[in-house]
Automatic annotation (TrEMBL):
Gene3D superfamilies on file: TolB, C-terminal domain
SUPFAM superfamilies listed in its UniProt record: Thermostable phytase (3-phytase)
Domain of life: Bacteria
GO molecular function (one): inositol hexakisphosphate 3-phosphatase activity
Pfam families linked to this entry: Phytase
Location of the BPP domain: 13-340
Protein name: 3-phytase
Upper lineage: Bacteria, Pseudomonadati, Bacteroidota, Flavobacteriia, Flavobacteriales
Originating species: Sinomicrobium oceani
Length: 340
């Protein structure tokens, strides 16, 4: 009976995807060596057509064969901007104009390195490490479960009023409360320091928490409590740790994974969330988080996704949506094709 139930679930997922028209990508990237996971987009303000898509490759367990691969907008790997020799790199994010000192600002890439229990921070586009080799996270995690200290999801928040930059980090497993840690990135003589500012966030215990996304303009953190739903909190630590919403769980076949935020002016826009088990994406309104529709973008078992609404040249005049595909690559869609 159990096998029949699983088979029925698989057939239902396939049927669900086939009922939706497939939106073909503009570009499929070159393949990474092992196992793609999560993308991040860096926009070149001086020349948008020279923007970079970063994509993590998790590699094999406990082996230094993981990396963050840089791709151009044609989907070609840029070796000089790629970072390799990592152990179990999971998720990545980009932020702009981090203050290093009174006269120096830099764009940054931050990512989790689960195999070394740390996060890494590099300047972009010159890809210089700013972290002295990495910042250990969840150091005070209680219990003997090693997964309580293994970082997975990561996102960054820049407070529009203060200019402070934070990283929000999730882990492979953890307690029902205070599953996420938030660190402020502060400039120093050697680069940056990471200072723990709060612990927050509920966890159902059903599977894990990996996908994290921050709406800088509206000041919210969203994260995927897999097989439970999407949780919402304030991004500013000074506004407290109250959970603002838990939504969307009924719209997912299995895991709710990657989250991208299409932030239009005036609070308009959408959350785009991977419905991993159904190989589709669910859209929710940015203002009230109600469900809108599902999309079939051709990917399978998508972990991470990211979006920018800024024009990136003639191939992506309306912005770029990037999603991970389980064939060791990433799909690029012009935002207009999504019908947002």
């Amino acid at each position: 009976m159990k096998k029949l139930a699983v088979l029925g679930s698989i057939l239902m997922m396939v049927a669900c995807k086939e009922q939706l028209p497939e939106i073909k990508p503009v570009v499929i990237t070159e393949k990474t060596p092992n196992d793609t996971d999560d993308p991040a987009i860096w926009i070149n303000r001086k020349n948008p057509e020279q923007s970079i898509v970063f994509g993590t490759d998790k590699g094999q367990q406990d082996q230094p064969d993981s990396g963050v691969y840089a791709f151009d907008l044609d989907g070609k790997i840029l070796p000089e901007q790629s970072i390799t020799g990592l152990i179990r790199c999971n998720n990545a994010d980009v932020e702009y104009d981090l203050k290093i000192n009174d006269s120096t600002y830099t764009d940054i890439l931050a990512f989790t390195e689960r195999g070394r229990n740390q996060i890494r921070v590099f300047s972009v586009p010159d890809m210089k490490p700013l972290d002295g080799g990495g910042f250990q996270v969840f150091e005070d995690a209680e219990g003997t479960n090693p997964e309580f200290k293994q970082p997975m999801g990561i996102s960054m928040y820049k407070n529009p009023q203060t200019g402070k930059v934070y990283v929000i980090v999730g882990r492979k497993s953890g307690p029902p409360e205070n599953y996420l840690y938030q660190y402020e990135l502060v400039g120093s003589t050697s680069g940056v320091e990471a200072r723990l500012v709060r612990k927050f966030g509920k966890f159902s215990g059903k599977k894990e928490i990996e996908a994290i996304a921050v709406d800088d303009a509206l000041g919210y953190i969203y994260y995927g409590d897999e097989q439970e739903g999407i949780r919402k909190y304030y991004a500013d630590p000074e506004k407290g740790n109250e959970e603002l919403a838990l939504f969307g769980g009924e719209h997912f076949t299995d895991d709710n994974e990657g989250i991208a935020i299409a932030a239009y002016p005036g609070g308009e826009g959408y959350l785009i969330v991977s419905n991993q088990g159904a190989h589709t994406f669910n859209l929710f309104r940015r203002d009230d988080n109600t469900f809108v529709k599902a999309l079939n973008l051709g990917t399978t078992s998508t972990d991470g996704c990211e979006i920018t609404l800024e024009p990136l040249g003639p191939r992506f005049p309306n912005g770029l949506f990037v999603s991970m595909n389980d064939a060791r690559d990433f799909f690029y869609h012009d935002v207009n094709a999504l019908g947002l």
